[in-house]
């Protein structure tokens, strides 16, 4: 018969391992998107990071607005 503490420790380790993998995956996706957008700035906007930033803000606000037709997600900022 297994000790209850061993079962709890295994559960906790699996929980943290799964969450660590999710975090690593999210950071990897974010890093990839960041580099693609930097390349877009260089190629399409001739390195104009200010214009790229403005486009990014506008696109981000549009993406937050479209699902619910409001901007409640940024209300508490």
TrEMBL record:
Q: Which domain of life is it from?
A: Bacteria
UniProt entry keywords in alphabetical sequence: Membrane, Transmembrane, Transmembrane helix
Q: Membrane among the record's keywords?
A: yes
Transmembrane residue ranges: 20-37, 49-66
The protein's name is Uncharacterized protein
* Organism of this sequence: Candidatus Vogelbacteria bacterium RIFOXYD1_FULL_46_19
């Amino acid at each position: 018969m297994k000790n209850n503490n061993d079962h709890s420790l295994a559960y906790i380790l699996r929980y943290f391992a799964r969450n660590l993998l999710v975090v690593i995956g999210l950071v990897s996706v974010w890093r990839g998107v960041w580099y693609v957008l930097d390349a877009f700035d260089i190629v399409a906007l001739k390195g104009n990071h200010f214009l790229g930033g403005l486009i990014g803000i506008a696109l981000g606000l549009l993406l937050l607005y479209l699902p619910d037709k409001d901007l409640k997600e940024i209300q508490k900022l």
